[in-house]
Amino acid sequence: MRRRVLGICAVAVLGSLLWAAPKERRGHFRIPFWLASSGEQASPAIRPKDLSASLGGAPTKVLKVNGPEDDLLVLVVFDLTEYLELADSAKQAFTAALERLPGHALVGLLRSQDGLRVLVDPTADRTALSDAVRAIPVSGKAGLLETVETVETVADAVLAKADIRVAILYVTDSDVGNYREDFTNPVINSSDSGDLSRRFPEQLVREKVSRMEANLAGRQAPLFIVHLNYRSDRLNEAYQVGLKRLAEITGGGAEFCRSVVEIPTAIQKSIELITSHYSVSLEVPQRSLKNVEIQLGLAGGEGERSLSYRTQFAFK
């Protein structure tokens, strides 16, 4: 099974990242969820009969559940452009977290500068991964916004082909002003105090995030972002809010570090959420659906509050 999974993952990542987007209506789709009250205890096995689910208020069938004990692929993308101290701390924290990953977790390592590049094929070789992480340069333009949809497409292709869990982790120090695309919304008429470009300088980045949200709402792999350098200027605050929205719409989350000492905790927290997540496969009803509300609960009557999961999904 491991050899088959590794082969599928390697093909998906290495195929020049040219996978076509998986068909949206193939009878089922997958979302991540967590046991909100599991604490430090070992996560119990959950079977389809243990869950109840509905889409847009109509019951739907739970087809399969993959849990923390099942195979996992983590696509890790480094997006480091500026401060060596922050980058070195992130690299050290990530290599330490690698050693604590379970043996059934494979990691594929990528870099987002100057186009998405595969650095290490999906592997369980922690030494090879650690060596590659240490060698990642800190340079270039920010690449998160330019590459995240491609990585999500690859992750969904793997989910469609292999019976495993898949998650994405971005480690970034990106400044919104360091992208090839200009998000600064330059002032059109400097003599006009009512010029909207002066009043809403963050409008371009908000529009970019909204377009990306619409696309990611139909993706199935949870996205996690660790941002190493929180910035408090108006444009970067809008950008950082946007990153949080992009992660949460997939069922993942974002951590923002205000100092170097917060980096190890942020990375470890994201890794723990990734390794502890469940992936549930839900049947798509025959009736036409577009944007639907998801309700997921434990069938034993403990209610939805015992679970943490994404509540929206967009069918194309």
Notes on the protein architecture:
- The protein is 33% helix and 25% strand.
- The chain is built from eight helices and 14 strands.
- It has 316 residues and is of the alpha/beta class.
- The model is unreliable at 1-8 and 10-25 (pLDDT under 50).
Q: Can you give me a brief rundown of this structure?
A:
The protein has helices at 2-14, 84-99, 126-134, 144-161, 196-199, 203-216, 234-249, 263-276; strands at 28-35, 51-55, 58-60, 62-66, 72-79, 105-111, 117-123, 165-172, 223-227, 253-256, 278-283, 291-298, 307-309, 312-314. With 316 residues, it is an alpha/beta fold. The model is unreliable at 1-8 and 10-25 (pLDDT under 50).
Number of helices: 8
Describe the largest sheet: 6 strands, mixed
Task: Provide the succession of SSEs.
Answer: HEEEEEHEEHHEHHEHEHEEEE
- Overall strand count: 14
What would you say the CATH architecture of the domain at 69-186 and 198-276 is? Answer: 3-Layer(aba) Sandwich
The helix-and-strand class reads: alpha/beta
Q: Return the CATH topology of the domain at 69-186 and 198-276.
A: Rossmann fold
**Bulk shape:** globular
* Radius of gyration over C-alpha positions, nearest whole angstrom: 20 Å
Runs in which pLDDT lies below 50 for 5 or more consecutive residues are 1-8, 10-25
